[in-house]
Design a protein that fits this description.
Number of helices: 8
Strand content: 15-25%
Order of helices and strands: EHEEHEHEHEHHEEEHH
Radius of gyration: 17 Å
Largest sheet: 6 strands, mixed
Number of domains: 1
CATH superfamily: Ribokinase
Strand order of the largest sheet: 3-2-1-4-5-6
CATH class: Alpha Beta
Distance between the termini: 28 Å
Number of strands: 9
Oligomer: single chain
Mean pLDDT: 93
Structural class: alpha/beta
């Protein structure tokens, strides 16, 4: 029996709640072997991002070559890529290594409000990376930034923006409504011929650090195990909801603490 393998290409979070660290925890929690390509280092904690150090593009390429030439990768999750050159390097690597099960989380702003993506990198992401993605997972603010449009205020707007993002080349879009108001957190999975509504009750907690990273990596874990996209998204939503609900069992830092990736075990 083959071991399911997923790779995260993202930034490192020194406090362990988001980025590469959250992705690897999620893969492990969901029974998938995780490998990584580190695209940036952050000096970060639950209160904010103090500094970002970008990994040189040639070293990102070398990491991708090392991982993909040896491991039988079932899915790829892409997170924080802060510079145009980094984005272009990753896109070239995906093509070279024939990766099609790609979940792209267009990380732009951290939970703390710190900007993680240079403005000039947005156009590069639209042009070279979104067309390589099976799924992109923007929140309301990220979807608006990618489209240079106002932030969606209702589900009709969310669906419309999801459809517009598909025009950029992604085969599916998960528009995340977690930043909206209301008693429910509603996400819309927009595909070519369908729209699925995923609903969870809104959980009153400040411990939401890494939720976007965790959701996208949970979807990649499902794809790596051979599940279809809709089922991968459904199970990932359930996992993240439970991880948020259990987050107050942890006491980490003085700001937005992490979700509880291993809530089922400890």
């Amino acid at each position: 029996m083959k071991t399911p393998i997923a790779v995260t290409i993202a930034g490192s979070d020194s406090s362990g709640g988001a980025g590469i660290q959250a992705d690897l925890k999620t893969f492990s929690a969901l029974g998938v072997y995780g490998a990584s390509v580190i695209a940036a280092l952050t000096a970060q904690n639950t209160q904010g991002v103090a500094a970002i150090h970008d990994v040189p593009a040639d070293f990102i390429s070398a990491q991708m070559e090392a991982v993909f030439s040896d491991l039988e990768v079932g899915a790829v999750k892409i997170g924080m890529l802060s510079r145009p050159q980094t984005i272009e390097t990753v896109a070239i690597g995906l093509v070279r290594h024939r990766q099609t099960k790609v979940v792209l989380d267009p990380v732009m702003i951290a939970t703390s409000g710190d900007r993680l993506l240079a403005p000039e990198a947005i156009e590069t992401m639209r042009r070279v990376l979104i067309p390589r993605a099976l799924l992109i997972t923007p929140n309301l603010h990220e979807a608006a930034a990618l489209l240079d449009a106002p932030v969606a205020t209702n589900e009709a707007n969310m669906r419309e923006q999801g459809e517009k993002l598909m025009v950029l080349g992604a085969r599916a879009v998960l528009v995340k409504g977690g930043h909206a108001d209301g008693a429910e957190a509603v996400d819309l999975l927009v595909e070519e011929n369908s729209v699925a509504r995923l609903v969870a009750g809104r959980i009153g907690t400040e411990n939401t650090h890494g939720t976007g990273c965790t959701l996208s990596s949970a979807i990649a874990a499902g794809l790596a195990k051979g599940l279809d996209l809709a089922e991968s998204v459904r199970l990932a939503k359930a996992y993240v909801t439970d991880a948020i609900a259990a987050s107050d069992r942890l006491s980490i830092g003085h700001g937005h603490g992490p979700v509880h990736h291993f809530h089922a075990w400890w």
